Amino acid sequence: MNTNLASLCKKLGYTFNDLSLLQTALSHRSIGKNNNERLEFLGDSVIGYVIAEELYLRFGDENEGNLSRYRSLLVKGDTLASIARQMSVGQFLKLGGGELKSGGFRRASILADAMEAIIGAITLDSNIEQARSCILSWYKERLDNIKTLDLKDPKTRLQERLQARKFELPLYKVISVNGKEHAQIFQVDCQVKELGLTITSEGSSRRAAEQKSAELMLELLLENKQLEKF
Question: How many other β-carbons are positioned within 10 Å of the β-carbon of residue 179?
């Protein structure tokens, strides 16, 4: 086995019988035909089912609405991208020239897609039970702490905190839109006027970029205890 891929397998907690499945899972569509989109399609379904089943079994007292919110929080792109970063998946990706130049190996959407493709590859290489074992291992800490997380989205949480202090609502402004139509990157500012603070973030849609900017603004305010000063 390729030494680099062996190190990735160690982080994943799974050794492939057919290494070509992992290689395909790490191949972005920008490289051409033999890419990870089909594996991503499979992996998306597998992780959705595994997480839904685990939530159902763990939380017998929760209603359907809360279970749906938990699942959405766990399987969303940002969470998958965070898991991919923990395993340094980005350094193993195969990208076309354009994506390499634009830093695609760091992009959340590409990392999330690769993580889904890896799940699809594990399922095909073994079975869904093995895929379940891997997923639950990767998600253990998040599943254990799911009830302590705020299920409201970052924009809502930021708005509520500012309103509680009688501040104006945060202002969001699109700074730029780059990339081809099917793979655009939006750059958005989030501004809190009273504090003179502006955070800029990127996303694959305007909404995603706004949510990320709001999340980073919340982190900044809480770190510096700015909200408690007013």
Answer: 13
32 Rama sector, left if φ>0, alpha if ψ -120 to 50, beta otherwise: left
Same domain, 63 and 103: yes
Kind of pairing between the strands at 171-178 and 197-203: unpaired
**Same domain as 171, residue 140:** no
pLDDT per position as a tens digit, 47-69: 999 999 999 999 998 889 889 88
Please state the domain count of the chain: 2
Q: What is the pTM of this model?
A: 0.68
Q: Quick check: 100 pLDDT over 50?
A: yes
For the stretch 123-138, pLDDT in tens is: 999 999 999 999 999 9
Parent domain of 83: 3-148
Using alpha carbons, select from 37, 40, 36 the residue that is nearest to residue 48.
40
Known catalytic residues? 44, 116
Q: Are residues 136 and 200 in the same domain?
A: no
In this structure, are 118 and 173 located in the same domain?
A: no
